[in-house]
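To the team - zinc ion complex, inputs and output below.
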Amino acid sequence: MLQLVAGLVLSAVIAFLAHRRDALTISGVWGAILVGTITVGFGGWTWGLVLIAFFALSTGLSRYRQADKRELADKFLKGAQRDVGQVLANGGLGAFIALLYFSYPTSALLAAFLGSIATVNADTWGTEIGILSRVPPRLITTGRRVPVGSSGGITLLGTAASTLGALFIGVLGYVLLCIEALVGAGNALGLSWIIPITLISGLLGSLFDSLLGATVQGIFHCARCEAETEKELHGCGLRTSHLRGWRWLNNDVVNLLSSLCGALVAIAIWGVIVGR
Ligand SMILES: [Zn+2]
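Output:
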């Protein structure tokens, strides 16, 4: 109970500050409070701090060279404001896994949580840094060159950033578990397997994100800007026409499915190397 209250207070403070700095819309604030409270309340401090690190670094990275990105990929790119859909797409599965962990405290669910957060973190780092690549992206499926910012396009720089993003979550998770073990009871040294599992599942999850982007994600065309976009309503204000992919499979659904992929890969590897 106390943990839930602590989670609520911490999430509310962070969400409010993020809103003040234009990183979250009002709906995004509610989403962040929900996800943060559940994750801290049912998962614990390591879970909560991993989530907060992901959120803070993603927000910072979105702003890094924002003007260049606008010029390169999407001149209608709107700040780095995240709405409730984006918040739930990135952190919703993690919060759900925290709920499960409360009833079944197994390290398999810890691995699944880190795998899901590593996936969305890898995806964010890959996107935000990859977009600055001087080499144009290639489609993950066919290798065809595609314009910067295209769904499903990958670059060496972006993939390297994704790898680092996944590794970061693994190392952070392990360090926090060790600190938790130092101040409390328990032994975290035996949990070092968490780093390679998180790295691999996060990287595979983010590649799955690109795969969905290249194949079945809904892609639209703006007649005014003569540009492909993931949005049904383009930033210029014009309603776009459906070009390919499944209409309902927008970026948020793709992110959620990828985080699920990352979590499942983590559980699968856990099953092989850690056991019951
Ligand atoms: Zn347009």
